[in-house]
Amino acid sequence: MSVTAPSRRLAGRCLFCQNLPIRPRVQHQQQRTAVFGRGKSENATTTEAQPSNNPVLDEYHRKNPSASSAQPQERPAPGDLAASSIFEDDHRAQRQQEEYAAAADGGDTGNTKVGGKARDPNNMLRVLDPDPNSRERWERKKVIQMVRRGGRLTDQQVIKRTEREHLVKSQNFKTSVKKLGMLARQIQGKTIEDAIVQMRFSKKKIAEDVLKQLEYARDEAVVMRGMGLGGVDRAAEENLNDTSPTVSGVEPMIPGRAEGNETPLQIQLKNGKRHTVADASKIYIDQAWVGRGPYGQLPDFRARGNTNILRTPWTSLTVLLKEEATRIREYEEREEKRRKAKVGKNLWVPLPDRPVQWQRQWYTF
């Protein structure tokens, strides 16, 4: 079959646009091999200098020279994160922090540029602090108070710094406030060891949970606050500190041990009972109270197919642990107050003895 002249002319052209030639597939594969293959030449690195085999692309570049001269999109460096990565924000913040540190090392004490933006520390403080004016007034007030007292601490501050205490709240127990309150009143005022013994031999069902809570509170107070460490064996302490230099005739002091602690001290509690203190660092339960928790629901099946809903209570136990040194201080304060109330205003206090510098007719300085 013979091909006519018009058919021969249209054989190498596109059917949709009759004026553009069709690129053979073999030629496209050869071009791709020449550009992206292993034997890539130096002239193939710049595609703008050589005309491509795509007439449509050449026509677009001819009409838009700015698009053809535009730089190609920058690819991320090897090992860098992509823009769509979930860690890109942290990476960007790290780069800004490094730029800020580099600007600070350069000696720029004023505004610094981080990420191309100037940042003033004073303006940032105004934004980050929710109420900067109130904070400045509070700081000024505290400084004035410290200056007026001359650096002296109040009685409450001295007590907080010299005496230890620890507050522990338990999880909710499946019992009522009335039942747990009786055990709280039973252990209040006792030493932690005596309270544990009371719960060990108690017939109450909830006493087992209270026993575990007391043991946990004791261990937590020892570890976190250092309570109850004054009664450790001194021989063991000396063995641990045998490498440290010691002064002959001077016994090393152990933190938490009161002076004269070898002889038991008889004190009177606030309720009038007598109490013997053998170790000033021994832990006792100063306060114990209960707190009402949420209510649960249980079905109560009744006669004739009826069902009631029972509200089961949950209750928590909170204990405040202190050392025997606190009870000794409170006992001394009560005795001093009782003595002053007994004597009243008739208490005569002699003036201190001072040398006479000079004498005058009516008074002497």
Automatic annotation (TrEMBL):
<keyword id="KW-0689">Ribosomal protein</keyword>
<feature type="region of interest" description="Disordered">
    <location>
        <begin position="239"/>
        <end position="259"/>
    </location>
</feature>
<feature type="compositionally biased region" description="Polar residues">
    <location>
        <begin position="42"/>
        <end position="55"/>
    </location>
</feature>
<dbReference type="GO" id="GO:0003735">
    <property type="term" value="F:structural constituent of ribosome"/>
</dbReference>
<dbReference type="Pfam" id="PF00237">
    <property type="entry name" value="Ribosomal_L22"/>
</dbReference>
<comment type="similarity">
    <text>Belongs to the universal ribosomal protein uL22 family.</text>
</comment>
<feature type="region of interest" description="Disordered">
    <location>
        <begin position="26"/>
        <end position="81"/>
    </location>
</feature>
<dbReference type="InterPro" id="IPR001063">
    <property type="entry name" value="Ribosomal_uL22"/>
</dbReference>
<keyword id="KW-0687">Ribonucleoprotein</keyword>
<dbReference type="GO" id="GO:0015934">
    <property type="term" value="C:large ribosomal subunit"/>
</dbReference>
<dbReference type="InterPro" id="IPR036394">
    <property type="entry name" value="Ribosomal_uL22_sf"/>
</dbReference>
<protein>
    <recommendedName>
        <fullName>Ribosomal protein L22</fullName>
    </recommendedName>
</protein>
<feature type="region of interest" description="Disordered">
    <location>
        <begin position="101"/>
        <end position="136"/>
    </location>
</feature>
<dbReference type="GO" id="GO:0006412">
    <property type="term" value="P:translation"/>
</dbReference>
<dbReference type="InterPro" id="IPR047867">
    <property type="entry name" value="Ribosomal_uL22_bac/org-type"/>
</dbReference>
